[in-house]
Amino acid sequence: MTEAPILSDLYFKTSSDRNAKDMTLLNLIPVPVNQDIKTAGPVDSARLEKAKLLLDSLGPYISSYQMRLQINEQQKQLAKAQDKMNDLRGDSADLQKKIRDLQSDLASVKQDQLKASSDLNTSINADDNTKSKYQKRVNKLFDKEASLEKKLRRAQQDLEDNKHDISRQQEELSKQQQGLNALNSRYTPN
Hints:
Blueprint: E1 8-17, E2 20-32, H1 45-122, H2 128-186
Antiparallel strand pairs: 1-2
């Protein structure tokens, strides 16, 4: 002869501890079906035992859910690290292009300086106004060269800093990936 099932209404109460932010306490009170919890007397031991079994059976599902939340958070962190790495690589490409452009501009200015110096030398016997014009042009080109060299040094330093940032970000990316791999290895779906 099989035992008749014990039917109960189940009342759940959750509470949190401020010191344990990742923990929630779950209380379960079994009450006979259709009976008001306020008027219910003491809980009989059979109902209490069945309630304990129910709570114990929920444990693996709650653990699995918590693990999925951690995995999702780790995946977000990994994606964020990857986005930062992509930005750094994009910055690196931009800096390399900027350096090439500055080097090209610098080479062009040096050619212009040679031509302007040649023009100045050929105008030695010219009037003062013409010589002054050529001298201003040469001076302007030397100033432009100094400015371009300064910009080039700054861009090269920025590229060097970017390489260090990429290296550090690669370490962070590896760390995030290892964390995700560790969580995935512990996760067993129900």
